[in-house]
Design a protein that fits this description.
The chain is of the alpha/beta class. It contains eleven helices and 13 strands. The protein is 40% helix and 16% strand. The mean pLDDT is 97. Bound molecules: nicotinamide-adenine-dinucleotide and uridine-diphosphate-N-acetylglucosamine. Uridine-diphosphate-N-acetylglucosamine binds next to strand 7, helix 7 and strand 8.
């Protein structure tokens, strides 16, 4: 059995589908602070299998003990808070969930002698990179409480792996996850105004928002707009299953980028989304967003070498799947 913390969320739900389809028993621990139980019902519908669910907070040792009293072989730890802007205003919440929550989980795993862990980290730990593509040994300069909370959790896991030989840990640094399950049944369901590009464009396409603000067209990129490494959430989920397999054969902590190795500009994403939804989308060029980096993308060669994993889906498929999800679920999981 695999314990998936935060399994009802955007990325977790896609991982759960693939785990079930691969024949794993799945136990989800989630407090639904940023997700809905309906997401898991749909996961079960796609996979045609049941999920075991515990509702609760990763900072609650009692619920963790209850989760780990199941026959859990490994944990995929996704539960966390993830909004960069919000983390600046609520740093304590971010350190509490992302750092204390992770510590709590590790302690509970030790109590129950479960030593295999896949941890969700983020490319945000690199901050503003000096060179691209970004390799895993690039110096880390997280620039927000969110980024620092992921960096701290990584440090804890690193020290843990040095202290006791039996821990097997893979830290996955995600680039920009987008897209949705091709069924249109699960996808990203942001609450309030989306902060990120793809969910914002989706809401412009569905008529929920009047236009996209493009944050700057004077970057040193071919069309002047920012470039990122967008990765289909299905590819990202597959990376977790590959990490679970790699865990078994590794005796050291592995830190691995999950990205495609290709960058796309805001304009390219907008154009691909227009092709997906079949209409022109309104936009306006506005000032650069403070703190934004002009361009970056991953060097995913370690993922290929160590996990045997490569991203397969292109930008058009990310936009097509995102649009199908948006069109079929204009109000998300409500
Ligand atoms: P999400 O918010 O959709 O999912 C997170 C899940 O964790 C939600 O279901 C939420 O209810 C749950 N959760 C939050 N706090 C909890 C707590 N204290 N106890 C139990 N459950 C809790 O986010 P996501 O996009 O699926 O991200 C999953 C992980 O990946 C996060 O750790 C995030 O930091 C990391 N990550 C996400 C992105 C991204 O762009 N989506 C990029 C890099 C890294
Ligand atoms: C953001 C997070 C990062 C997280 C990543 C996951 C910040 C500072 N960083 O990164 O921690 O890992 O999401 O996906 O929030 N853009 C617009 N208009 C919009 C929204 C975005 O032009 O309405 C542009 C941005 O300027 C950027 C690109 O689109 O060039 C991507 O932005 P976004 O989706 O927010 O991702 P990141 O900034 O890369």
């Amino acid at each position: 059995m695999i314990l998936v913390t935060g399994g009802a969320g955007y990325i977790g739900s896609h991982i759960c589908v693939q785990l079930l389809q691969a024949g794993h028993e799945v136990l989800v621990l989630d407090n639904f602070s940023n997700s809905k139980p309906e997401a898991l019902r749909r996961v079960e519908c796609i996979a045609g299998k049941k999920i075991h669910l515990l509702e609760g907070d990763i900072r609650d040792s009692t619920i963790l003990d209850r989760a780990l009293s199941h026959p859990v072989r490994a944990v995929i730890h996704l539960a966390g808070l993830k909004a960069v802007g919000e983390s600046v205003n609520k740093p304590v919440d971010y350190y509490s969930v992302n750092v204390t929550g992770t510590l709590n989980l590790i302690q509970a795993m030790q109590r129950h002698q479960v030593y295999q862990l896949v941890f969700s980290s983020s490319a945000t730990v690199y901050g503003t990179p000096e060179t691209v593509p970004i390799k895993e040994d690039t110096p880390l300069h997280p620039e927000s409480p969110y980024g620092r909370s992921k960096w701290m959790a990584e440090q804890i896991l690193h020290d843990l792996s040095l202290s006791v030989a039996n821990w097997k840990i893979v830290v996955l640094r995600y680039f920009n996850p987008v897209g949705a399950h091709p069924s249109g049944l699960i996808g990203e369901d942001p609450s309030g105004v989306p902060n990120n590009l793809m969910p914002y464009i989706s809401q412009v396409a569905s008529g929920k928002r009047p236009l996209l603000q493009i944050y700057g067209n004077d970057y040193p990129t071919p069309d002047g707009t920012g470039i990122r490494d967008y990765i289909h959430v299905e590819d990202l989920a597959a990376g977790h299953l590959a990490a679970l397999t790699a865990l078994k054969h590794s005796n050291e902590l592995l830190t691995i980028n999950l990205g495609t190795g290709h960058g796309h500009s805001v304009m390219e994403v907008l154009n691909a989304y227009e092709s997906a939804c079949g209409s022109k989308l309104s936009y306006q060029i506005s000032a650069r967003r403070p703190g934004d980096v002009a361009f970056y993308w991953a060097d995913p060669s370690q993922a290929t070498k160590i996990l045997g994993w490569t991203a397969r889906k292109d930008l058009q498929s990310m936009c097509n799947d995102s649009w199908r999800w948006q069109k079929l679920n204009p109000n998300g999981f409500c």
